[in-house]
Amino acid sequence: MRALLQRVTHAEVAVEGQTVGRCGRGFLILLGVGPDDTEDDAARLWNKIHKLRVFDDDAGKMNLALDAVEGEVLVVSQFTLYADCRRGNRPSFTAAAPPELGKRLYEHFCELAEADLGARHVGRGIFAAEMQVSLVNDGPITIWLDTDEMTRPRMP
């Protein structure tokens, strides 16, 4: 799985002119799913994002995680994170998961976020919809995460 995180003061996503999801201070998460991804990948990615210390502490140092700032998230499905632009000028998206798997893991990722954040807000886009995303990037802080590049747990 791949995620492009943007630390935001607020973000929202609209479909056909209607806002369908939003968040306040926290992360806009653009989430892509690959064909070999699993629920375990979704959990590892969410755990990394949830614990990522990129919010300022009282000394102005990026040292606080989402919980410490009572942060929110907006999760938007983004199959184009798997674009292959190595040949020609038209990207290929064959490296993205099929829609059924992509939707299932996108929903699972959102459910993990909701379980951890409790009463705090988890906004969502609409899977496979044509969406317009607006945000105020805070910092700006933008981080790329890919589960293929994250350390996997060691086997006993």
Notes on the structure:
The protein is of the alpha/beta class and 156 residues long. It starts with a strand and ends in a 10-residue tail after the last strand. It contains two helices and eight strands. It has helices spanning 39-51, 99-117; strands at residues 2-15, 18-23, 26-32, 55-56, 62-64, 72-77, 122-124, 132-146. Helix 1 crosses helix 2 (99-117).
How would you concisely characterize the structure shown here?
The protein is α/β, with parallel strands linked by helices and 156 residues long.
What fraction strand?
A: 35-45%
Number of strands: 8
* Number of separate helices: 2
What string, H for helix and E for strand, traces the elements in order? EEEHEEEHEE
Low-confidence stretches: none
**Cα radius of gyration in angstroms:** 16 Å
Q: Specify the biggest β-sheet.
A: 6 strands, mixed
Cα distance spanning the termini: 24 Å
Helix content: 10-25%
SS class: alpha/beta
Write down the overall mean pLDDT. Answer: 94
Anisotropy-based shape: globular
Topology, please?
Blueprint: E1 2-15, E2 18-23, E3 26-32, H1 39-51, E4 55-56, E5 62-64, E6 72-77, H2 99-117, E7 122-124, E8 132-146
Parallel strand pairs: 3-6, 6-7
Antiparallel strand pairs: 1-2, 1-3, 1-8, 4-5
Question: Any descriptors?
Answer:
single chain; 156 residues; alpha/beta; six-stranded mixed sheet; two-stranded antiparallel sheet; 2 helices; 21% helix; globular
